[in-house]
């Protein structure tokens, strides 16, 4: 997760959130939900403009917002996506806190290999969290295009994790990391998390034959 933390300035954003009080965190939550709603509508609008195929499309239209038509099942998809986003955000915060406990403050290179907490289940819980957040959001859009992009997101994150292991983690920790990979076989997601994502994908796909 090293290069992602550098790219998105997790250090600065993490410190702001951790040092803030209740009001600061409440404001962050409101902004997060607002951002989710706006992002949801933006993607629905874009997919609508490109002529996207949508499952469960034989249901009666419940609401029109601009050019975006919403049916009853959209509400269920939306709520499911929001729950996933909240879960992923909380998980992201906890993993970030754990990562900071192992990071050298001078050069941001970890001074120890994390093998506790989330790291007892998967080797790259941060990448797995991004899959939960990104793929979960895309699958909540009730969109064939979203389903395809979600699959691409999963593949990209697995490639990122493999690259980081080979180019950064193994050179830093050597045999210690090799032994760790033997103990923790799952790279990004646990088996239950994989099953949930597959079921979400199948549920969306089933809508095309309804």
Strand order of the largest sheet: 1-2
Average of per-residue pLDDT values: 83
Shape: globular
Radius of gyration: 19 Å
- Count up the domains: 1
Please report which band the strand proportion falls in: under 5%, 5-15%, 15-25%, 25-35%, 35-45% or over 45%: under 5%
Q: Roughly how much helix do the residues carry, as a percent range?
A: 55-70%
Class computed from helices, strands and strand pairing: mainly alpha
Spell out the helices and strands N to C.
HHHEEHHHHH
Major β-sheet annotation = 2 strands, antiparallel
Membrane topology: Multi-pass membrane protein
GO molecular function, one term: methyltransferase activity
Main location: membrane
InterPro entries: Phopholipid_MeTrfase
Task: Tag the structure with descriptive keywords.
210 residues, mainly alpha, Phopholipid_MeTrfase, membrane, 4% strand, 2 strands, two-stranded antiparallel ribbon
Q: What this model shows, in words?
A:
InterPro entries: Phopholipid_MeTrfase (IPR007318). With 210 residues, the chain is mainly alpha-helical. It has one domain (2-206). Helices cover 68% and strands 4% of the residues. Strands 1-2 form a two-stranded antiparallel ribbon. A hairpin with a 2-residue loop joins strand 1 and strand 2. Helix 5 (125-139) packs antiparallel against helix 6. The chain is globular and about 60 Å long. It starts with a helix and ends with a helix. The mean pLDDT is 83.
């Amino acid at each position: 997760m090293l290069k992602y933390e550098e790219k998105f300035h997790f250090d600065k954003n993490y410190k702001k959130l951790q040092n803030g009080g209740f009001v600061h965190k409440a404001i962050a939550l409101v902004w997060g939900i607002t951002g989710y709603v706006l992002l949801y509508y933006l993607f629905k609008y874009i997919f609508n403009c490109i002529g996207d195929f949508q499952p469960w499309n034989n249901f009666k239209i419940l609401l029109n917002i601009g050019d975006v038509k919403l049916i009853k099942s959209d509400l269920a998809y939306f709520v499911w996506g929001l729950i996933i986003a909240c879960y992923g955000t909380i998980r992201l915060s906890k993993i970030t806190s754990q990562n900071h406990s192992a990071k050298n403050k001078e050069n941001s290179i970890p001074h120890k290999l994390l093998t506790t907490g989330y790291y007892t289940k998967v080797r790259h819980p941060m990448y797995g969290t991004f899959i939960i957040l990104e793929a979960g959001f895309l699958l909540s859009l009730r969109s064939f295009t979203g389903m395809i992009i979600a699959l691409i997101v999963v593949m990209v994150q697995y490639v990122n994790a493999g690259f980081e292991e080979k180019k950064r983690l193994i050179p830093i920790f050597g045999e210690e990391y090799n032994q760790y990979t033997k103990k923790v076989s799952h790279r990004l997601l646990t088996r239950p998390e994989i099953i949930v994502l597959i079921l979400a994908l199948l549920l969306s796909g089933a809508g095309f034959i309804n």
